[in-house]
Write a sequence for this structure.
């Protein structure tokens, strides 16, 4: 008798638990995870947390977990490849395409219709985040590459903003004579920063049209235009116009070379405005756009879409995820991002109305103007295919050190590009 | 005992030898001294002249770094990793080495050859497959996943040194216990273990040192800050505060201090353990 | 020699003992096979594919190895490994021998010297790398100090492509030589002092005695050290990764850092596994050659 009672009780308990569990699931909260950089500034993380709590307040059945990791992109990619990963994925566009091609991401077209996202972004944004005709990601922040310069120094010495390659070289020459380093630069803690100069060089050296052809496979990497561009960049480096020992100092150290007046210029992204303001140098700094290095070709502003937000195919609640994305990208919500120096490329954001530092707004206008005129260049980490990009920034130092010749570099670039074409890594835009 | 033949009068060591050794010692330990010195300076002082003495010792650097660097979590992670690794490794290797030396089943020669081989194989070579296996098993970015790796890679060395030790235990004691009717497990527990305390201590210290200092796998397999061990916490800290050299030095001292203290207490075991393992290889 | 027991049946007690013994052996063995043995075999498998870690792998046979033999970057890295090995076979070994030889002359306090000298080995590689990076910094380190003293063109250490590899090797050997020194001390303590004293009576000075009398007596230890150093120099990774990342350019790139980057950043684990395998093969071949020569009577 005792045994039967035990059995009955256990079964009843199990049934009750199961029923309870199922009910909880039915009425329960959907949970979403996002990976976030633990090394992001506190303000930026606070901003994200603020957005999340506002969203959760309006949607009590959705809970969002911000998971702090030191390499959110790398982590997300690894875990996705292993069959898991966070629900909302924030990775660079090249990787986004690779994952989209292998069905790791959810196509967003139905949500785009539901929430009318196409009205928020320009067509070129949508195109660059599409694969095989389907839209896979909402754009990350827009960055542009500019040259920050020490206006006080320029005024003192009567230096002018260069408008051609020759003028640039002559300016650097004059700076060197006064014992001022022309371009501060440091990559010892982040070798990938080489992408910045490569992007800038290719945009200035080739111009928009030829660069576009190159990246679409209509121009060979071994052609003269490319060779000239690389030669121009290497020339700047070898003459120490770009800091020759960049491999031995960190980005922070490079920036302080600029803020302490030892270097006259600093070529970096629009994101640099916030740290520069924080460093509070005792001179006025301004920006200029790198002139074109080719005669007869217009100067362009190299831009990059700093990644994209996509939905993991393994996400259990894609609807909830899409709803959150929609909230994040509401113009009023997204506009607050400007306080950190960057912005999503949304059409309806009125910069002048936002409460943000003047310098930051100025830089954002820079980017917007270029977007409007269409005079944009293509940064390596957004527009170049994976293998080509990796080879480019990994090996550029070796040319400057004469460890390999420009010819070898270009041939390898061409080979890598062909490999990318075979693997379907090349973006069409 | 060394045989000493007296040639002439027995003098003390010539002082010039001591001078030479002391100078060389100072040069050798100079970087560590620099680390300690700079940890007590403000950042400006360090940047101004890295090799000066601190003007006013900035003891609060330590409190600041401990908090900012999240070292209490990191220490805890490393401690957990150490304790678990030591417990599992010492137990598993103890049984294994005992069986290989005293019970000698057929095929145990293969096992000892296998361990010899893995001892000379560097752990860097296992990275790629382990990386992807760990991802599939969802062990990536978990402390227990990392600990499992630590256990595995420390086994060959510990088995080897335990084997040499056990070979030194006279068989007669064990035989007489067996004749008295003792089972193998109780022989292990009641006779072998008490006698082996020295080797257990050495093994624990070696595994502890290896886990505390380990950087390669901790860095590649753990990305979440709250799970980082002390060594990788240091790396993350230097990434975040790359321009604050005084804090970097303070964090460095915090990172190495526990092991240094442990080392100074157990010098003999550390040194003999670390070198014995390689000699046998 | 193993005794061959001529028994047709193994008694039950023996069998029980064997099973028990294997039960004791298995946990450690299986743990290690799972973590090390299995993956090493797995490396071999992965190296025969074009896997990128994300998409499904395809079998491509020995293509990776063909590509490797033509890969100038790899060959350059391998050359660096060779330079590294030569550096390590000379510098730390020499220092260790000399200092060990001197310490053993100390009547009292040998152990204290041994303990204090050994300290760098206890310092974790990340901290050692960091403090040496400070010392090597072009703005705050030795270079700057030399410049202040008025020396023009001081060595630029990590920034100088010709010097970078050796600068890093120096730091690693700063840690490594103390390990060798302790080994040599132990070996030297077993040397018969009477022969040395006889040589000195015959007129040899201290240095000659050391070179011609003492060192030959510890030849087994020295050769073991040389063999171990060679093998370890193939897979050395930590300090190059922490201090230069292979740069500037590729001047300090080692086979291991190249493999690491290919596997985890460039998403080419298949190709990287081929490099891994080559490293394993090198150790195996080297050890086999040593073993073979020993069997032939070569005294190494």
């Amino acid at each position: 008798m005792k045994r039967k009672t035990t059995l009955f009780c256990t079964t009843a308990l199990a049934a009750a638990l199961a029923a309870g569990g199922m009910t909880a699931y039915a009425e329960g909260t959907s949970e979403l995870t996002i990976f976030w950089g633990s090394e992001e500034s506190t303000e930026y993380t606070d901003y994200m947390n603020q957005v999340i709590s506002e969203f959760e307040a309006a949607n009590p059945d959705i809970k969002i977990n911000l998971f702090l990791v030191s390499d959110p992109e790398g982590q997300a990619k690894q875990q996705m490849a292993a069959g898991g990963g966070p629900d909302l994925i924030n990775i660079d566009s090249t990787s986004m395409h690779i994952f989209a091609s292998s069905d790791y991401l959810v196509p967003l077209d139905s949500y785009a219709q539901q929430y009318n996202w196409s009205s928020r972004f320009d067509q070129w944004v949508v195109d660059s985040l599409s694969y095989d005709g389907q839209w896979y990601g909402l754009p990350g922040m827009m960055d542009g590459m500019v040259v920050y310069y020490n206006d006080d120094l320029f005024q003192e010495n009567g230096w002018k903003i260069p408008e051609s390659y020759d003028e640039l070289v002559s300016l650097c020459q004059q700076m060197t004579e006064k014992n001022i380093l022309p371009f501060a630069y440091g990559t010892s803690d982040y070798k990938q920063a080489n992408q910045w100069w490569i992007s800038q060089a290719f945009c200035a050296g080739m111009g928009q049209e030829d660069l576009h052809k190159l990246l679409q496979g209509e121009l060979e990497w071994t052609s003269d235009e490319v060779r000239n561009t690389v030669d121009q960049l290497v020339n700047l480096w070898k003459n120490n116009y770009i800091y020759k020992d960049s491999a031995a100092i960190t980005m922070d150290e490079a920036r302080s070379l600029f803020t302490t007046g030892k270097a006259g210029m600093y070529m970096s992204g629009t994101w640099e405005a916030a740290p520069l303001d924080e460093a509070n140098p005792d001179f006025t700094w301004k920006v200029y756009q790198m002139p074109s290095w080719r005669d007869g070709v217009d100067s362009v502003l190299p831009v990059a879409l700093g990644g994209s937000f996509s939905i993991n195919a393994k996400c259990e609640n894609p609807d909830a995820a899409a709803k959150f994305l929609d909230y994040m990208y509401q113009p009023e919500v997204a506009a607050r991002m400007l306080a950190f120096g960057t912005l999503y490329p949304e059409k309806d954001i009125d910069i002048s109305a936002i409460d943000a530092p003047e310098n930051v707004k100025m830089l954002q206008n820079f980017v917007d103007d270029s977007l409007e005129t269409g005079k944009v260049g293509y940064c390596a980490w957004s527009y170049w295919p994976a293998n080509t990009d990796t080879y480019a920034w990994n090996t550029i130092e070796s040319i400057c050190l004469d460890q390999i010749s420009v010819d070898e570099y270009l041939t390898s670039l061409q080979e890598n590009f062909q490999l990318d074409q075979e693997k379907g890594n090349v973006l069409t835009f | 005992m060394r045989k000493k033949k007296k040639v002439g009068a027995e003098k003390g060591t010539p002082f010039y030898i001591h001078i030479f050794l002391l100078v060389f010692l100072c040069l050798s330990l100079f970087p560590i001294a620099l680390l300690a010195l700079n940890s007590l300076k403000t950042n400006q002082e360090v940047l101004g002249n890295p090799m000066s003495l601190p003007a006013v010792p900035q003891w609060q650097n330590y409190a600041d770094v401990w908090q900012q660097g999240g070292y209490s979590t990191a220490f805890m992670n490393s401690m957990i990793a150490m304790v678990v690794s030591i417990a599992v490794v010492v137990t598993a290797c103890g049984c294994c080495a005992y069986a290989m030396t005293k019970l000698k089943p057929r095929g145990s020669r293969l096992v000892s050859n296998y361990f010899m081989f893995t001892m000379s194989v560097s752990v860097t070579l296992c990275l790629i497959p382990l990386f992807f296996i760990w991802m599939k098993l969802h062990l990536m970015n978990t402390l227990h996943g990392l600990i499992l790796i630590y256990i595995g890679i420390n086994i060959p060395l510990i088995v080897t040194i335990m084997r040499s030790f056990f070979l030194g235990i006279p068989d007669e004691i064990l035989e007489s216990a067996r004749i008295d009717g003792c089972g193998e497990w109780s022989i292990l527990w009641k006779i072998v273990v008490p006698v082996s305390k020295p080797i257990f201590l050495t093994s624990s210290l070696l595994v502890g040192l290896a886990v505390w200092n380990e950087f390669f796998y901790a860095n590649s397999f753990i990305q979440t800050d709250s799970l980082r061990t002390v060594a990788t916490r240091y790396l993350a800290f230097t990434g975040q505060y790359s321009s604050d050299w005084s804090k970097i030095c303070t964090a460095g001292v915090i990172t190495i201090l526990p092991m240094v203290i442990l080392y100074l207490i157990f010098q003999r075991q550390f040194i003999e353990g670390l070198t014995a393992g390689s000699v046998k290889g | 020699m193993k005794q061959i027991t001529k028994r047709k049946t193994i008694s039950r007690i023996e069998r029980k003992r064997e099973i028990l013994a294997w039960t004791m052996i298995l946990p450690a063995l299986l743990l290690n096979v799972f973590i090390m043995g299995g993956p090493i075999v797995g490396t071999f498998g992965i190296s025969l594919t074009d896997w990128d870690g994300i998409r499904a792998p395809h079998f491509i046979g020995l293509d990776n190895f063909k590509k490797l033999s033509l890969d100038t970057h790899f060959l350059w890295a391998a050359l660096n490994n060779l330079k590294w090995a030569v550096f390590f076979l000379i510098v730390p070994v020499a220092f260790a021998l000399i200092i060990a030889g001197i310490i053993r002359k100390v009547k009292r306090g040998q152990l204290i010297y041994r303990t204090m000298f050994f300290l760098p080995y206890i310092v974790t590689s990340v901290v050692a790398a960091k403090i040496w990076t400070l010392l090597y910094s072009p703005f705050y380190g030795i270079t700057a100090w030399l410049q202040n003293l008025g020396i023009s063109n001081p060595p630029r250490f990590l920034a100088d492509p010709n010097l970078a590899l050796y600068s890093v090797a120096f730091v690693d050997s700063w840690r490594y030589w103390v390990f060798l020194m302790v080994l040599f001390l132990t070996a030297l303590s077993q040397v018969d002092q009477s022969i040395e004293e006889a040589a000195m009576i015959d007129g040899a000075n201290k240095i000659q005695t050391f070179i011609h009398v003492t060192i030959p007596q510890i030849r087994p230890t020295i050769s073991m050290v040389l063999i171990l150093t060679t093998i370890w120099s193939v897979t050395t990774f930590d300090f190059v990764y922490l201090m230069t990342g292979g740069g500037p350019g590729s001047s300090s790139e080692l086979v291991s850092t190249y493999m690491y980057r290919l596997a985890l950043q460039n998403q080419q684990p298949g190709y990287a596994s081929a490099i891994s395998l080559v490293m394993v093969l090198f150790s195996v071949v080297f050890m086999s050659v040593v073993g073979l020569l020993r069997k032939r009577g070569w005294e190494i």
